Amino acid sequence: MTQTPKKQMKSASRLYAVQALFQMESSGQTIEAVCREFETHRFGATYDEGEFVEGDVDHFRKLVAEAVNWQALIDQMTDRALVAKWPIDRIDPVLRALFRAAGAEMTKTETPPKVVITEFVDVAKAFFPDGKEPKFVNAVLDHMAHEAKPEAF
Question: Which is an annotated GO molecular function term of this record (predicted)?
Answer without folding.
Answer: RNA binding
